[in-house]
Write a structure and sequence with these properties.
With 240 residues, this protein is mainly α. It has helices at residues 2-11, 15-75, 77-89, 94-106, 118-124, 127-130, 135-164, 192-196, 199-239, and strands at residues 173-176, 185-188. The protein has a two-stranded antiparallel sheet. The chain starts with a helix and ends with a helix.
């Protein structure tokens, strides 16, 4: 309709009307483009909020995974202390031998956590979302993603190294098929005097226990770093 009026005005050489109608056309096109950009910006903002919420959920899940690992390791911590004391003194009463066997059995648990990082890939692969984040948060996110990858690799490496010379490889360790609750468990298959006389057994026990305690310390540090990053995610999301 407006183009028909514009053609009529040109034929009549009504230049003032032509100017007004051209301005209307230009303004309409401009507003249409701006409206499209505004709608796209709103969609990207909603996508970013969703991505940050998913990232927040994954960080919380990873914190739970690390806390569960710490809790598992702490379950037999007292028994590990007793086990090392038994090896030092080379004497043990029945309760101490039970503690030693609990410590030995605990060394075959799965201490290799698997963390989640799907949302990092989603965010880092979409420039239109990254552009909406503050530069400070992008820096924090990049640093945390690097530490997450490093920690996952180090957990796996330490776990594999522990098994290279694990206590279970000692010929002094066997299986008790009549353990607590009728379930089989790994135990010391000889007396404490023979175990103390075997330096290889002592090294394997100490090394295995040390690896487990190292995994616990790394998990505790990971929780602290993840909680700090989680606060940054929440702050960035709330600012959008």
């Amino acid at each position: 309709m407006i183009m028909r009026r514009l053609s009529t005005s040109i034929r009549k050489q009504d230049w003032f009307t032509v100017l007004i109608e051209m301005l209307i056309v230009v303004l309409g096109v401009y507003l249409g483009i701006q409206l499209g950009n505004w709608n796209e910006a709103n969609r990207n903002n909603a996508r970013l909020i969703g991505a940050l919420e998913r990232l927040e959920g994954e960080v919380r899940t990873n914190i739970d995974i690390a806390n569960d690992l710490v809790a598992i390791i702490e379950e037999e911590q007292d028994e590990r202390v007793v086990a090392l004391e038994v090896l030092r003194s080379c004497t043990a009463d029945e309760a101490q031998m039970d503690a030693l066997n609990v410590a030995i059995a605990s060394t075959i648990r799965d201490y290799a956590p698997s963390f989640i990082d799907n949302s990092f890939s989603e965010l880092l692969g979409r420039d239109e979302l990254l552009d909406l984040l503050s530069s400070e948060f992008r820096q924090v996110m990049g640093g945390y993603r690097g530490r997450l990858t490093e920690d996952q690799d180090q957990f796996n490496t330490n776990f594999n190294l522990m098994w290279m010379d694990h206590l279970i490889r000692s010929p002094l360790v066997g299986v008790d098929f009549e353990g607590e609750g009728g379930s089989a468990r790994i135990v010391l298959a000889t007396d404490i005097e023979e175990a103390c006389a075997d330096p290889r057994f002592q090294v394997q026990l100490l090394t295995t226990v040390s690896f487990i305690m190292g995994l616990r310390l790394r998990a505790e540090r990971f929780v602290e770093e993840s909680e700090a990053f989680l606060a940054s995610v929440e702050s960035e999301r709330d600012a959008l």
